[in-house]
Amino acid sequence: MGxxxxxxxxxxxxxxPGPMMTMMMADQGAEVIKIETQAGDPAREQAPFEAxxxxxxxxxxxxxxxxxxxxxSEAGKARLWDLIAxxxxxxxxxxxxxxxxxxxxxxxxxxxxxxxxxxxxxxxxQHGAMAHHPAHDMATQALAGFLSVNDGADGTPVVPxxxxxxxxxxxTALSATLMALIxxxxxxxxxxxxxxxxxxxxxxxxxxxxSAIMGGPSPVxxxxxxxxxxxxxxxxxxxxxxxxxxxxxxIKFAENLLGALGRPDLIAHASREAGExxxxxxxxxxxxxxxxxxxxxxxxxxxxxxxxxxxNFREALDEPHxxxxxxxxxxxxxxxxxxxxxxxxxxxxxxxxxxxxSDG
Length: 360
Prior knowledge:
This protein has helices at 17-27, 55-61, 74-84, 98-102, 106-112, 137-143, 164-187, 197-201, 210-213, 251-260, 278-288, 293-300, 313-317, 320-325; strands at residues 8-11, 31-36, 49-50, 53-54, 65-68, 89-92, 117-122, 191-196, 233-237, 243-247, 307-309, 328-331, 334-337. By secondary structure, the chain is of the alpha/beta class. This is CoA transferase.
């Protein structure tokens, strides 16, 4: 039993945002029925593979059922209506207008089943000039302003390492769906959620884009505290070509580190405005270049400083902290990233991801 036991979800989404959202529901006991075409979710074919399945697919679709339906056929449509009849949540990730053409838009579904919570996930929402513009994560980040500050020292934007717009949409859709389910307990009615990747990501800029939000100029990374303009929120290269970070701007960390390095005269520099700490940054660049990454890890072991080595995923997953928290597990020959949401009163074990049409 999980917190969402008894909740039934019909999921027509593929790739990342929708499957992430519905897997989080499945992890907590919801019955999630993944509706697929004969070709299946494209993520099924994404390498690498382990124990006969895509690692990507398994880690976004565990615990679900799979049913193949041809929604252009009358038989496929009839079967979907049968499934919706007992469902609480309906999730789709098609371009705006597709569900209406198929006859399963919110107006049609809610007319028959007013208790349904219907969630549409798209790049730019169901209406507006951008509604039909094709986009995946990076294009959405670019149009929302985020890629402009995902840049190097020369100001050139680079491909982001995290699909933030996808993930933001999945989390926003989940939150909205749970809110609607709670609201339904009082009203007796479901609701419609127009979840856009763009809309979901935009609020994430509040701490870095203040000047633009208030109608002024856009932030420049080299003059932002969290984007490269501060000595104690910065990436440094070590003698072995690897990297470490200082990740805390509180003055106590500057006092602790610069005191230990014998340079208390530079402590005041850490309180200067971002973009005015070049002397401090240059000094720290020189210092960190004198030892290897792992030597610095040892050196910082007894220092109260927000410091961390930059690890690759292999190194990160092998860290003792991951094992202590049970965040990376092997089950039935396959590896899983454990859900971040786990309850003290419940024990979580990964359910298998479905083979195509295994519950058809």
